[in-house]
Amino acid sequence: MHENTRVLGTPPAEPRDALRHFRDIRLACETDPYDVHCDLAAGAAGFVLLDSRRRTDHDRCHIPGARSFAHQEMTDAALAALPKDTVYVTYGWGPGCNAGTRAAARLAEHGFRVKEMIGGLEYWQRAGYETACAPSPAPAQ
């Protein structure tokens, strides 16, 4: 009956399959700026926030407390130096940037527990949360 619609052309998943997908897969692998902000504000321990963009981008602006670890720098040797008993939360610039995804995949490939903060720095800033940003240079007079 709905074969001609874009939304229902592919039937929705059975509820048990949707629950497994959303709760057991997506929420196990993703978090968002709100949850990260709440945990950081409450002083919650248990995860390390990794800015997965290039170090120059991190130096320009990042989430306070985030460590710079660009996905391009995640060599076997660099990853071997990280503690395995920590959960890592990665982020990139925003939805149009896959740095956080690449970093999360690399960490998982090496046996680390990891989540990606969806929305990245862009959605962190849109929410009005504090950032550590270098001042912009003054315009030439």
Automatic annotation (TrEMBL):
Domain Rhodanese span(s) in chain numbering: 43-133
Pfam families, per database record: Rhodanese (PF00581)
InterPro entries: GlpE_sulfurtransferase, Rhodanese-like_dom, Rhodanese-like_dom_sf
Name this protein carries in UniProt: Rhodanese-like domain-containing protein
Organism name: Streptomyces bathyalis
